[in-house]
Amino acid sequence: MGACGFGAWWLITKRGSEDPGTGKPKTGEVDPKPTGKKTELRIAYGTEKKNWLKWAVEEFEATKEGKDIQVTLIPMGSLEGARATVKGEEEIHVWSPASSAYRDVFVTDWQLEHSGNPIAREETLALSPMVFVMWKERYDAFVSQYNALDFETLSEAMVAPGGWNDIAQKPEWGFFKFGHTNPTQSNSGLISLTLMAHHYYDKTTPLEAQDIVNAPFQTWLKQIEGSVSGLINSTGNMMRDMVLKGPASYDVVLVYENLAIDYLKNAEGRWGQLYVVYPKINLWNDNPYYIIDAPWVEKNEKKAAETFLEFLMSEPIQQQSLVHGFRPGNPSVPVIGPESPFEKYKKYGLQIAIDTIAEPPRADAINNLLTGWQRLRSSQ
C-alpha cells in the first residue's frame, strides 16, 4: 500500500499505547464513579491518545447523548490492556490500543480463557505511522558518516566501540543511544521489533514464525537490542524524557508520528531542533476502538460504547485528532490544509506520503517476536 494509502486502508480494514503518562492509572487520573442513572462507559486506551480523548470526552459531556453517559478513561499500555481484559482484572467496555497488531493474540488468549469472540464491533479511530526522531545536529553528523538513518546504520552505530568519537569525532557526545519502549508492555516497542524484521527481510508481506526464529535474524536483532536504551512502558514518557533531558537521554527514538508532532516545537526551545525520518518500510498504528463482548458488558453499556464511537468519528472530533498529529480515521476529513501540522512542520521532516506499508504480522510471529526478545534480553 503506497502513498496516502491510509484513507483506502481505513475503508477496507474494519479489523483494523502514549502521551506523557505511565501507562497505568494514577490516583485522580481515572474519572470518579458515576452517580444517578448515568451509564458508565469504561475505556482502556493507549495513552498516545490521551490529549485527544480527554478533549473529546469534555466535548461529549456537553451533548444531549453525553448527559446520560459518563466516560471513564483508563490509561493503559496497549498490551497491558489486553491482558487485563482477558484476566478480568479490568471490566472494561471498550479497548482502544495504539494498533491492531496484538488483536489476534488478544482474541486467541480470550478464547483459551473463556469462549467466543470478545470483540462485538471494531473501527479505526485514527492512523499514525512510526518515525525515527533524532536531534538535528546529531542527525546531520550521523548521515555524514552513514548516508542514511535506518535500522542497518543504527546497528552499525550502536556497536561502534568509541561511540560518537568513531562516528563523528565527537567524544563529548558519548555512546550512541537509540531508544524504543518495552515490547512486552507497549505497542510501539512491539512495532519497533516488527519493523526491524521487515527491514531485515526487505518484505512487506506478513511476518511468519519461521522469519522470526531464523538464527541469522536473531543474531542481527541481538546486535541492536543488546544496546538499546529506554525500554520503558510508555512511548509518551520516552518522548517526554528525550525533550526534557536532551541528548543525554537519547540520540534517536522510534515513536508514533503523532507524538513526534506534539513535541517538535517544545524541543526547539530546550535542546535544539528535532528531525523526523520515516522507516523505509512502515506500519500503520490504526488506533482501533474495540467494543468488548464479555459477560460483564450490559446492553446499555454496549449502546453507550456505540454512541461515543459515533461521536469520535464525527468530522469536528476527527479534525481535532489532526491537531494532535493523527491522520483522521474518517476519510472525509482531509490531512492537507494550511493549519495541518504536516504543512506547518514540514521543515522537521514530516511527510504526508508513506511510500511502503507492510501488512500486519500474524499472531504466531508476534508471539515468537516477544518470546525471542525476552530470551535475548535475559541472556545478557
List keywords for this structure.
380 residues; alpha/beta; D-Maltodextrin-Binding Protein, domain 2; 2 domains; five-stranded mixed sheet; 12 strands; 42% helix; 14% strand; globular; disordered N terminus
Tell me about this structure:
The protein is of the alpha/beta class and 380 residues long. The protein has two domains: 172 residues, Periplasmic binding protein-like II (D-Maltodextrin-Binding Protein, domain 2, 3-Layer(aba) Sandwich); 179 residues, D-Maltodextrin-Binding Protein, domain 2 (3-Layer(aba) Sandwich), CATH 3.40.190. It is 42% helix and 14% strand. The strands form three sheets. A five-stranded mixed beta sheet has the order 2-1-3-11-4, with helices on both faces. Helix 2 links the parallel strand 1 and strand 2. Helix 3 runs parallel beside helix 4 and helix 11 packs parallel to helix 12. The N terminus is likely disordered.
